[in-house]
Structures are given as structure tokens and as C-alpha cells.
Design a protein that fits this description.
Elements lengths: L2 H22 L9 E6 L5 E9 L10 E8 L8 H16 L6 E6 L3 H9 L3 E8 L7 E8 L2 H6 L1
Parallel strand pairs: 3-4
Antiparallel strand pairs: 1-2, 2-3, 4-6, 5-6
Length: 154
């Protein structure tokens, strides 16, 4: 799926999102949650991602978090994931004056995801342990981009 299609999907909604955002938020410093969906020409959803405020207030250098990204197996490896991230960041930059970094967290066993994030410019930040999913302690890694603009320029 070409980036233009993902961009066109968002451009058709950009004005209404901006209007909705400005009506419900007083400060440009409030961080919105951005949802971007990739669809085929037949309107089949093939992927989505969510970018929002980092839930860890102590991670001030990385105020934005890539919360979720998923692309249907059939469409993986076609550039959709990168396009979703880039478009979500562009939309975030148009809705907010935030310029800080973006963090994404993955389980260490998910080497495919970690390799993908590194391929699109994320750098290793720190390792940690989490029991957030399933109550069982698991090793995880945080990766990130120092600036949202780094993501767009890749």
C-alpha cells in the first residue's frame, strides 16, 4: 500500500480532527491520541496504529508513546507499518506543538518487532521487566526516536 493512500485517508479527516481537537482542548501542550488506519481501495482495514501520551511521566524526554501497531499478516513487509507511524507522527505534529521523542516498548522475545523499529530509526533506550500483560513477569525493551521529526525524515 503506498504512503499516498494512507496520507489521503488522513487528509480527508484532518480538518474535522483539527476542529474537534481545538473545540475540546485549551492547550496545544495537551497531547492527543492519534489513531491511523490503513485501508485497501475496497475499504478493507489492513492495519492501524495508535500514538499518544507516554503513560510514564518520568520519561520526559519521550512524551509520546507508540501504543499499538498492527498490520494484517498478508500485508506485512509492504511498508504499511512505517507509513502508519509516519502519518501518525505528521498528524500529531499538526495537532500539537510537541517536539520531543517517541518511545515504543516491546517484549524482548519479539525480535521481529524490535528489528522493525530499529530499521525505521528507533534506538535502544533501556531494558525493563513488566507484568502488565497476563500478570507474569516478562523482559521488555524500550526503543525510541529522540524527536518526532526524526521519524518523518527517515
Amino acid at each position: 500500500m503506498p504512503l499516498e493512500f494512507v496520507t489521503n485517508v488522513n487528509q480527508s479527516r484532518r480538518e474535522s480532527l483539527l476542529q474537534q481537537w481545538s473545540q475540546t482542548h485549551d492547550s496545544k501542550h495537551t497531547i492527543p491520541s492519534i489513531y491511523v488506519v490503513a485501508v485497501t481501495s475496497e475499504n478493507q482495514v489492513v492495519g492501524y496504529c495508535e500514538l499518544g501520551p507516554n503513560p510514564e511521566p518520568s520519561e520526559t524526554q519521550y512524551p509520546i508513546s507508540l501504543e499499538t501497531i498492527h498490520v494484517a499478516k498478508k500485508y506485512q513487509g509492504c511498508g504499511i507499518s512505517k507509513s502508519l507511524i509516519v502519518e501518525a507522527v505528521r498528524l500529531m505534529l499538526s495537532l500539537s506543538d510537541m517536539t520531543g521523542g517517541v518511545v515504543v516498548k516491546a517484549f524482548q522475545q519479539n525480535q521481529r518487532a524490535i528489528s522493525f523499529y530499529k530499521k525505521v530509526g528507533a534506538e535502544w533506550l533501556w531494558d525493563f521487566e513488566t507484568s502488565e500483560y497476563g500478570g507474569q513477569s516478562r523482559q521488555a525493551v524500550a526503543l525510541g526516536w529522540k524527536s518526532m521529526k526524526d521519524i518523518i525524515s527517515k
